[in-house]
Amino acid sequence: MKKERGILFVLSGPSGVGKGTVNRSLRKQWDGLEFSISVTTRKPREGEEDGVDYFFKSRDEFEKMIEQNELLEHAEYVGNYYGTPLQYVEKTLADGKDVLLEIEVQGALQVRKLVPEGVFIFLAPPSLDELRNRIVGRGTETEELIDNRMKVAKEELEMMDHYDYVVENDEIQAACDRIKAISIAEHCKKDRIKQQYLRILEVK
Ligand SMILES: Nc1nc2c(ncn2[C@@H]2O[C@H](COP(=O)(O)OP(=O)(O)O)[C@@H](O)[C@H]2O)c(=O)[nH]1
Ligand SMILES: Nc1ncnc2c1ncn2[C@@H]1O[C@H](COP(=O)(O)OP(=O)(O)O)[C@@H](O)[C@H]1O
What we know:
With 204 residues, the chain is an alpha/beta fold. It contains 7 helices and 9 strands; from the N terminus they run E-H-E-E-E-H-E-E-H-E-H-E-H-H-E-H. Its EC number is 2.7.4.8.
């Protein structure tokens, strides 16, 4: 019998809201969820590892990947390319495993068109002031880049209503718990739909 496909979860939201932090925390507490590693042309930050945090590529290498249709989606974000490897996502879902993508808003909207059955989660900050504090507190950007990221963040917040769920990241563990609850609910929904379908067809 054909294996049932896994669910694609897309975690998105403005820069600095805590996507990376929540993603890393989920990795430690959610067995059975697969995490896609993105490709980027951004330089590695201190402590980041190639093949763990990102696959770090040159612009030429990245553009070649676009040409060869190796990416599910890609976006240019604050001067760098970011993209999701297509083959990994497709194979993992086909194997019946759930996959989580942590990507910015333009990319999430592309995935929404390509995989409408995916579950789209928008991580929201408690306030704009708190969002700025988090970007400044992270200490990875210059003042000019912070202003740039805040500008992009305000535009990104307006895209919230394109998502299935909005999860406030007030506290990391609370946000992780909400995301895990969404996953449980989505699996129950999928099972119920399948049961109804089987009942209608009277397939045992
Ligand atoms: N579209 C897209 N965005 C990505 C991908 N990987 C990471 N991003 C997003 O790119 C943005 C910048 O990421 P990064 O430079 O690591 O900075 P940070 O997440 O703001 O700390 C974030 O919003 C990430 O979620 C990807 O594969 N595709
Ligand atoms: N719930 C939270 N409360 C307080 N600080 C947070 C929370 N979530 C993340 N942060 C902090 O905010 C900063 C930005 O988080 P990060 O995960 O890099 O965001 P993103 O990946 O969305 O750009 C980091 O310094 C991180 O430690």
